[in-house]
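sry for the spam today, last one i promise. struct tokens for design, 406 residues
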């Protein structure tokens, strides 16, 4: 069912234009949105022609045609009687007062399927469209809504709110035909979001697949990132190589940078408990990387050593009790790494108090929350340790800040 909503004012000789719009839309039902004065003046002039049409119609009186907010409210109320799933909503904004035109444009942009206005190929000396030369210009409002959704999703993406950005785009995805160029921008942005979500979960095989998918959207990606096509292609191939390395190699050095970058993203949206837990894992991974250099850890990241009489030695039954962060650094200290004492005091066996930040949260053994300043101190500490053990804290790729392509 197609419903045409049309504003009606008191202007002279608007009837021909209104009828031209109605014939163009060929709706099942017409709803005239008009002031009391407009109904009194225009309804009698249109009645005879309207009866010739197959469309049903009704007149809805607008009490405040010169007040924008009230017009919006009344127009929205007029739509409540219709089933949105069964109706195609068309809106003609030509013939009402300026507040009515603005109000119907706003409503149409939010929930309409199309918006139109009547212009003319010829005008008289007063600038009015000559009857019989009317042209109806129509725009699909769903395209406007999708453009708006893409812009909002970009803002959410840049604020690291990836799930919210994805939800918004998925809600608007089916509004667009796959052949439209706007749909390609939406699909490219969805791939970028899925790439980031895969990185968050350390699913680098999936991240690599998303990057390969993005190679089909170089034109759109170029506009999102302000990077030339040729450079983008090189970047993508480079990133795919890095992600493949991370997914296949449990000791990939890029994992450390990805952990710290992931912590930063969590902190950016105020999730300091989560961010601190990721830093804790980064600190543990630094120790695991260093044990790897001494062939003291297996492919499942299980340390195959213990400190025995002050010396780090290989053991056979290492799987019965995997080493935690503290024990790993005790092993490293016994191997001659003095920086390990910054993690655990060897004499007192007491861990660095920063480690208790994670241990006291709901993600470990307690119910305390991490403050921003505590997280910042923990991050500084982890980066210092990574440098002392000669590991880079840089991620496989830097987080993108994208821009609207429109």
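last one done:
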């Amino acid at each position: 069912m197609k419903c045409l909503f049309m504003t009606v004012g008191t202007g002279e000789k608007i009837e021909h234009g209104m009828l031209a719009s109605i014939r163009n839309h060929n709706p099942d039902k017409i709803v005239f949105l008009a002031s009391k004065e407009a109904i009194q003046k225009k309804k009698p002039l249109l009645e005879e022609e309207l009866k010739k049409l197959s469309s049903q119609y009704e007149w809805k009186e607008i009490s405040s045609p010169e007040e924008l907010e009230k017009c919006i409210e009344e127009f929205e109320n007029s739509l409540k009687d219709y089933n949105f799933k069964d109706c195609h909503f068309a809106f003609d904004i030509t013939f009402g007062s300026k507040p009515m035109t603005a109000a119907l444009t706003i409503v149409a942009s939010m929930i309409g399927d199309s918006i139109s206005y009547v212009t003319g190929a010829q005008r008289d000396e007063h600038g009015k469209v000559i009857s019989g030369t009317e042209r109806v210009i129509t725009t699909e409002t769903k395209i406007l809504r999708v453009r708006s959704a893409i812009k909002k999703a970009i803002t959410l993406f840049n604020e690291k709110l990836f799930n919210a950005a994805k939800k918004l785009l998925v809600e608007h995805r089916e509004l667009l035909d796959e052949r439209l160029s706007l749909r390609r921008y939406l699909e490219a942005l969805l791939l970028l979001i899925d790439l980031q979500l895969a990185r968050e979960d350390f699913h680098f095989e999936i991240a690599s697949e998303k990057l390969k998918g993005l190679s089909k959207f170089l034109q759109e990606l170029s506009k999102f990132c302000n990077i030339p096509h040729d450079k983008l292609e090189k970047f993508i191939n480079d990133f795919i190589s890095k992600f493949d390395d991370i997914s296949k190699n449990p000791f990939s050095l890029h994992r450390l940078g990805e952990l710290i970058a992931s912590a930063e993203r969590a902190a950016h949206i105020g999730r300091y408990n989560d961010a601190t837990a990721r830093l804790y894992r980064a600190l543990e991974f630094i120790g695991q990387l260093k044990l790897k250099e001494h062939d003291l850890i297996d492919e499942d990241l299980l340390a195959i050593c213990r400190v025995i009489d002050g010396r780090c030695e290989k053991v056979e039954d290492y799987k019965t009790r995997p080493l935690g962060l503290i024990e790993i650094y005790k092993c490293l200290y016994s191997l001659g790494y003095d920086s390990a004492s910054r993690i655990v005091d060897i004499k007192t066996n007491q861990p660095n108090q920063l480690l208790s930040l994670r241990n006291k949260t709901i993600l470990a053994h307690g119910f305390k929350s991490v403050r921003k300043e505590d997280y910042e101190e923990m991050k500084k500490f982890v980066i210092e340790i990574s440098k002392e053990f000669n590991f880079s804290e840089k991620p496989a790729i830097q987080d993108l800040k994208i821009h609207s392509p429109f």
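The radius of gyration is 32 Å. ok im logging off now
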